[in-house]
Design brief:
TIM Barrel; globular; single chain; alpha/beta
Length: about 375
């Protein structure tokens, strides 16, 4: 008699993987390639949902959060980015600590628990700027969790400050930094990086900086940018490198698959790239839940894939809808068609309508 989970599979090639899933065994590189190859999206989703229910039951998390970029000036040339500006560009800006305080004092920011800041690589901003920024924010908003710097940002700002990453991080933590987001990973394959993010070519910098954060007790998230010129082999390689690092450090809180946005960037002008489809977005969530057996949380990032697909993603392995976000810039400047932010009530309604139980969390997944 086949086990109940097997009955959801129409692709017989998935049965050995299903056996591993039911036994809690780790999937291999070749298993990952098959998960990308199978036309049986429903069966793939059923296996991921099985793992999700085992780990989290019907819980679905969200955070009341604000996105804010302190500068869009960037000397790193990423071909997929529509956010970056060079000095002299009329769009260019760099915010002072006082500017950011004024922004956060606006009524729409009342009640936020997490401030998520990622930005460009601005050579005028060094360690003194960040120490002052974090101390100022913590003095004015002591309850606010500061989640700042991609791994590439941290490496860049440490270097231009004349500091090791370890020393830069220690000083930022002393000033109020509490965790880091997971952006900037893109795809780890070196040949792909040469074509999509020429200014941050070395994947090892991202991985090494994440390991430093984890060793110093600072949790981070992790990501992968998909839907551009990469292939399934590149994606599996990327996910397994994340899994290997997590084996060593245990410092990743959540993984977020990021759908490439096609508008107003060099990569989409020089390559024929189509907007990601719903099946592609759901597959990325499900594959991540099955391959990343040691990362606790998988997000369905509604900003990039739509509210409706994020709801379905909760049945394809995701257990987190991210947050209210409030004024996301980077994805929207590249063509994201979702709202700039969602209310807490709206997020909870999305979760309940999808058949799950909403839980407001902080960045460390403590619930309220």
């Amino acid at each position: 008699m086949p086990l109940p989970l097997h009955r959801h599979l129409s692709d017989e090639r998935l049965h050995p993987i299903c056996d591993k899933v039911l036994k809690g065994e780790r999937l291999s590189f070749d298993d990952g390639l098959l998960l990308y190859d199978t036309p049986d999206l429903t069966g793939l989703g059923a296996m991921a949902h099985h793992v999700r229910l085992q780990r989290h039951g019907r819980k679905a998390y969200y955070v009341v959060s604000r996105r804010l970029s302190y500068t869009n000036i960037c000397y790193t040339h990423c071909q997929f980015c529509a956010f970056q500006a060079k000095p002299g560009d009329p769009r260019a800006y760099a915010l002072s600590a006082e500017d950011i305080v004024k922004e956060l004092e606006k009524p729409e920011n009342a009640g936020i628990r997490e401030l998520h800041m990622t930005s460009g690589h601005n050579p005028k901003l060094k360690i003194d700027y960040f120490e002052n920024l974090f101390r100022t924010l913590k003095a004015r908003f002591p309850q606010l969790h500061l989640k700042v710097f991609t791994m590439i940002e941290m490496d860049y700002y440490a270097r231009i400050s004349g500091l090791s990453v370890e020393e830069f991080l220690s000083r930022c933590v002393a000033a109020g930094l509490e965790s880091c987001p997971g952006g900037g990973a893109e795809i780890f394959d070196s040949e792909i990086r040469e074509q999509i993010c020429v200014g941050k070519k070395e994947a090892d910098i991202w991985l090494r900086t994440a390991e430093i954060c984890h060793r110093q007790g600072i949790p981070t998230n992790c990501t992968m940018l998909y839907g551009h010129i990469e292939t399934p082999r590149h994606r599996v390689d990327h996910l397994l490198r994340l899994r290997e690092l997590q084996d060593r450090t245990g410092g990743f809180l959540a993984y977020i698959p990021l759908a490439y946005q096609i508008e107003d960037n060099e990569l989409s002008r020089t390559h024929i790239i189509h907007e990601t489809t719903g099946t592609q977005d759901l597959r990325e969530i499900a594959v991540a839940r099955l391959l990343l057996d040691n990362i606790p949380h998988i997000k369905a990032y509604w900003v990039m894939i739509s509210e409706g697909l994020a709801q379905i993603g909760l049945s394809y392995g995701a257990n987190d809808l991210d947050g209210t976000v409030i004024e996301e810039e980077i994805a929207h400047q590249a063509g994201a068609k979702t709202p700039q932010g969602l209310s807490k009530a709206h997020l909870e309604r999305l979760i309940r309508e999808a058949g799950f139980d909403p839980l407001e969390r902080d960045n460390l997944y403590r619930t309220y």
